[in-house]
Amino acid sequence: MSATRMLVLGVVFWAGKAHGYQIRAELQSWRADSWARIKPGSLYHALRKAVADELLVDTPEPGDGGPERTAYSITAAGRAELDRLVTAGLSVPGDPWMLNAAIAMLPTLSRADAVAHLSARIEALEVARSEMEGWRGGADPIKPEHVAEQAELWLAQLNADLVWSRGLVARLLDGAYSMSEHGEPPSIQV
């Protein structure tokens, strides 16, 4: 639910105000269903929950020749929750769905904050890599021996994550991407 919540809050933040269908269409155009495990029903549940948690405000509006629609806008608490979720997704390794959503929401942070959270990720990955190398090369051989392949896989994944994280930090420091430098949405069309 957290990745879905992050993406819903982020799309509403960028749009300023959006209807459920607009949020769904935007996330479908990003193919978020494949990299964040978002299903259409979970979006509407996330919207209702965010309103109940006072992260979004829902406002009824007349429909275009049809029934009334609900427009959503983000609250200050919703903006803080979005920052918290993106921060956790970037800085804490281990949840690929949260990382994927945080990458999609990266421009909601300031450049300095994004670099700081990615730097925390790098530190955590280096610790995990050191622990994995110790586990793999420990005094007691891993049994059964083919299970050692898991250590090789995990070590390769940690190394790939480190290379990618360091590269993203370098790209951000070089000025890549429009970022939310002063809490306002960057110039991203949704």
TrEMBL record:
Residue intervals passing through the bilayer: none
Protein name per Swiss-Prot or TrEMBL: Transcriptional regulator PadR-like family protein
Transcription regulator PadR N-terminal domain segment(s): 11-83
InterPro entries in the record: Metal_resp_DNA-bind_regulator, Tscrpt_reg_PadR_N, WH-like_DNA-bd_sf, WH_DNA-bd_sf
Top-rank lineage group of the source organism: Bacteria
Lineage: Bacteria, Bacillati, Actinomycetota, Actinomycetes, Pseudonocardiales
